[in-house]
Amino acid sequence: MRLFLNGLAASAGGGLTYLRNVIPFLADTPDLRITIALTPGLREELQDFRTVNFVELDVPPARRFWYEQLTLPSVIRDSGADVLLSAGNFAVRNTSVPQILLSRNSLYTSADFYQDLRSRHEYRVWLDTHLKALLAKQSIQWADVTVAPSVAFASDLNRWTGKPVQAIHHGFDQEAFCRDTSPLSKEVEEKLTAIEGSLKLLFVSHYNYYRNFETLLRALPLLRAALPERSLKLLLTCKLVDGENPGEYSPKEAAGLVSRLGVSDMVVELGGIPYRQLHRLYRRADIYITPAYTETFAHPLVEAMASGLPVVASDLAVHREICEDAAVYFSRFDSHALAACVQQVARPEKSRPMVVAGLKRSRSFSWKEHVGKILEIARELVSAKSAHAV
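Now predict its structure.
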């Protein structure tokens, strides 16, 4: 079977994580040949495989959808593909082969996100998101099968579109995640060494609005008052400075909040950490926190559990599905509840059973199984097309 994977949407975060992890398992599948379309800047991030042909297409993000509709069908046809896997929320309408759509952007269905944009007067982003949501919704109609990374998000998409959506969890590969032996940068290492002995809270994310940094920051003075005997630090894998994060989200409000709350001494802005080195950072932290108000899967939750960290998470159906008993949950905009959860987890008698539960839960996620299920759908679609042709 020949598979064409459209990875043009991958740039950072979950999209790039997905490609990094699924490509080795696709490449290792007998009797499968893969063509992968991606932007030139990503090629150096990915290994070479004998059965994989990378097609680098220099397409500006603003033109990607139209390129996929007008030009990509001929690229797919020229590759000799039997089936198309569209990995970036938007399907190709006029393709000559069956298509599996991976839908993994919850912003399009999030009332909280639209309200957040209005409160920030981000009307251009609000309109842009609405327009993309219309295209994403239509894409689910165009695709032969749509796959979501969690049951909770699949249910959201089903309610939104009226179309059936299959849930296939994203995976995790402990060996691959911890394989890299290179040290953290000197700057990051110095920052971590300087706070040894502190209670270290970790949040792995570029700055963006839906990850709800502000609720987390508002919890810091509450924690300082509640735990006066502890030195507490929040580790961020970003910098709250314009131009230091991908996308169009401005961190000015968050940076101003740090200053107004007087918690600059508690916030450690590490900047971006290479994915291959993240395992070293997780092991230097004590508690993982995510205040996100919308999600589809959240890879860092699985990475944190596999690294032996208890989790404090906003109370989303997706978070409960992924973490189960390995996390404690707080109402997503309630800083007081977040602080109370951290106080609970800071006690060893509370965190120890969570760590055990997290290690067990992390083993439930497998990239090999994920790829196997995707390929099972692909083979069924190819067989059905062949039978129909006869």
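The longest strand covers residues 33-38.
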